[in-house]
Amino acid sequence: MATGFGRLPEQPIAWSRTGNGEFPFRADHAGSELTIRVNDFPAEPLYTLLIDGRPGFDLEDWPSAWTRPLVGPEALRVAGDARAGRGRFDAIVVADWAHRLCAVAGSPAERVIAAFGLTGELVEAIGYRLLMPPPAGVDRLEISERDGSVTDLQITPTGGGPHRAELDELLGPGRDGVRVHWDSPHPVRYRVTVGAAPYACNLVAYFANPPSAGSPPTGQGPAVRLMLQRGNVELSERGPAG
């Protein structure tokens, strides 16, 4: 390993995306080119850091001091479709749905479900409708409407949902919310907007464990429930079309 690079995981580094699936991130640091290689996890360490094209050291996780750029809606759509096609429900699928909810034209539940690429029957319940059967990786998916317009989706993952660090990577740092009761799950809120899309989406991920001390917060384990809530875009949030 090059001299002086042993403490790299502790140093703030802003990475850019390359578009290469095997080597997705690069950065310039201290006169050297750094590249991240994604390995065959779990048989191998998750990442390997290359320094000027040569292996430096392995990483079991992404260092908290390093910053990855957010993923755009189109990349999320492609990756989300691929994940869902393999029967997975993870942070990428959740982030993709949040972005699609902002942009979907029309408001009935049927149109939103179609925009997500989901199939199934919407079964009437008291105050909401259930998608039956739910998509792979989901135990329960409730859709609430007001005056024929979708207001929110409540999602209960099978086993466990995405971790906070995964959502932070895709959507930016979440904000800790306030629990409604002492034994309620801990909410973390994300705000999602898409260019000139007509709506915004508030994603709330609920975790059984409280956030750890430090920045960024970690250690909350998988989300036990997620809510996608559609609302109006603030004037300051409006971006250019396209």
From TrEMBL:
Name of the protein in its database record: Uncharacterized protein
Species for this entry: Pseudofrankia inefficax (strain DSM 45817 / CECT 9037 / DDB 130130 / EuI1c)
